[in-house]
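Hello again,

I reread your note about wanting to compare the complex against the isolated chains. To keep things tidy I'm splitting this into two emails, and this first one only covers the full assembly. Below are the input lines as submitted, including protein chains and any nucleic acid or small-molecule components. They are followed by the predicted structure of everything together. The single-chain runs will come separately.
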Amino acid sequence: MNEMSTARAVAGAAGTPAKIRLLRAEKTFQVRGQDIEALHPTDLDIRPHEFIALVGPSGCGKSTILNMIAGLMRPTAGEVLYDGQAVTGPNRRVGYMTQKDTLLPWRTTRDNIRIALELKSHATPRAEADDRVRQMIELVGLKGFENHTPAELSGGMRKRAAMARTLIYEPETLLMDEPFGALDSQLKLLMLDQLQSLTQHRRMTVVFVTHDLGEAITLSDRIVVLSARPGRIRAIHEVRLERPRDVFKVRFTPAFSEQHERLWDELKDDIIKGTDV
Amino acid sequence: MAPRTAVIGTGRARRPGATGGDQSALERFFSTSAGRIGSRLVLVALILLVWEYAPVPRATRFWMSSPSLILGTLWDWLFDGTIWAHLGSTLLVMSEGYVIGCAAGIGFGFLLGFFPRLSRVLAPLLASFYALPKIALAPLFVILLGVDNSSKVALVAVTVFFLVLTSTIDGVRAVDRNTVNALVLMGATRTEIIRKVLIWAALPWIFTGMRIAVRYAFTTTLLAELIAANRGLGFLIELSSGNFNTTGAYAAIMVVIICSVLLTELLSRLENRMSHWNQKFTPRSAPPSTAIA
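Full-complex prediction:
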C-alpha cells in the first residue's frame, strides 16, 4: 500500500496548495529512558476548507498530529507546514478543542464561552460579544446553564461549552480531539448537525479525531485511517456523499453503509492487533 | 465550637462495637448534645473545685495558685486596662506582621511564579530560608530593630511571608498546562494569561497559605514576646513568671487560651466557607454514579 503517494496525488488533483502539510513528520517520546515511537514519519496534505477525520486505534498518534499542527508539540524529525510556513510555536490560526476540556473552573458557562472575545486579538465590543455568546449558548443547547460553573455541568455539557468557546471566535482551522465522546447518541447527532452547518458556512478547515466511524463518514470529505503504534497512515478514504448532508438520515443510505464497511475492513485487523499489544 | 465537636462525637458513637441497638443509657446520654455539654461543664467544675479546695501545703498552693485568685487577677486586669494594653499590643503586632507578610508573600510569589527563570535562580536560597525556624531570628531582630513592636512585627512578617510565598508559587505552578495552551492558541498575550488564568488559578492555594499563616502569626508573636518585649501577652506571662507571680502567669495563659479558641473558631468558619467555594469551582473528576459505587 502506498499511502504517501495517494495523499500527494489527492492534493495535487485538487489543484490548490495544501492548508496544512505534514512532511515526513515523526514523533518519538522518551518514557523512562525508552524511546516510544508515537508517529512514524508521515506525509499528509490537508486542503483548505476541507473536513478531514483521523481514525484509528488508541495510541496511533492522532492526538500527536493535532498537537503538532497546533504547534504545541515539535515533530522529532520532519516538518509541519501551515499555509506553507513551518509551524515552530503555538499556532494562533487554529482553534483547538482538546479531548479534556480546559474550561476555567472559576468562570460561568457564559464567561467561559466569552473569553476569546475578551482578548486583544479578538477584541469585540461588549454588546456584540454578549450577542454572539447568547447565540452560541443557544446553538450548543446550554440555555438555562449560562450562570453555572463547569463543576456544575455534566460531562456532555462541558464538551458543548468547550466547543462553543472554540467556535465563537471563528478560527480558520478547527482541530477537534474526540469532541463528542461523552455525548449520548441523540445529542451527538444534534451537535454534528450544528458543527457541520457552522463549519460549512464559515468554510473552516477541520481536522477531527474520532473513534466513531459513523461520525467520521457523516462529517468528512476525507478519512485518514491510521494504524496502531507506531502510528502511520494506512489509507485515505474519500467520502463521496453529497453535501449538504442530513446527519439524521445519511447513515441510513446505501452509500454510507458501503463506506462504513470498507473503513471497518481497513481498521478491524489493527484494532484487534492493538488490543493484543 | 459546639457543632464541630458534635460531629466528632457522632463519629465516636458509630465506632465498631459502640454501634447497634445495645447502646447503654450512658452512651445515649453522651450522644445528645445537652448531655455532652453538661458532662463537659461538670468535668470543668470538678477540676476547678479540686484546684481551689485541695488541701495542699502553703508552698504548693503558691506555685499552683487557685481559680479564685486567677479570676481576681483577670478581673483587676480587665478594669485597670492591663489586659487591653497587652492584648491590643499582641493583636496589633500579629496583624501588622500578618498583613505585611501576606502582601509581600503574594507579590513576590506571583513574581517568581510568572518568571520561572528568576525562580530557578532564587529557589535554593528561598528553600534554605524556608527551612530555618524563623524564631531563631528573634534575638537578632531585637538587636537590629529594638525591643519595641517593630522587631516582633518583622519576625511575624518573615514567618508569614515564607508560608504565603510558597503557597503562591505552588499555586501558579499547579496551573493546568493545557488550560494555558488553550488560551495561547486563542491569541492571548502573556499579560492576558497572567490576568485571566494564573492569578485566578492560584487563589485557592493562596487562601490556604494565608489561613495556615494566621496560626503561625499568633504563635510567633507570643514566642517573640516571650523572648524580649516590653508589652504583649507573651510579655505578660514572662513578666509574671519572672516575678514569681504564678497567679498572673496563669491569668495571662487563660487569656491566650481564650484568644486561640476564638481564632480557631474563626478559621474553621472561614475554612467551611472556602471549601464550599472550592467545590463550586473544582470540576467533578468522576461522574456521580462512580462516586456512589
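For quick reference: The longest helix of chain A spans residues 254-276.

B.
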